[in-house]
Give the backbone structure.
Amino acid sequence: MRRTTIVARRVVRQLRRDRRLLGLSVVAPLVIVYFLKLFFDTFPPDFPKARYVVPVAAFLVHFLSFLLCAIVLVQERTAGTLERMFINGYRRTAIIGGYLLGYLGLATLQAVVALAEVLLLFDLDYDAATLGMLFLVV
């Protein structure tokens, strides 16, 4: 467990230093949700937007998080960081767990930003329990 937290701390430090990735991970969901708003505004007024907006936004945020994590893992692979961790005796489970913990904060930030924008742009009104469930799903 100790090595997992070491990897997670290293990932978080790396994320804080990479301003482009942080900007992309926060700004891109905002832009995508705004385009989603423009798309749903083309539908007739009686179309139940609230039924489809949150699942589509959740999918888009999940997909964007997946792409960003894949990009960073490719950067790690080309920099040789993963090989150095293996040489130093880290197990695959510790490395994967560390990356999972490190990117959990980034994914949480993306989910909060996207969900807040969806609620504001589409004028959705949910109670606290429903918002908690939506956040967990996203």
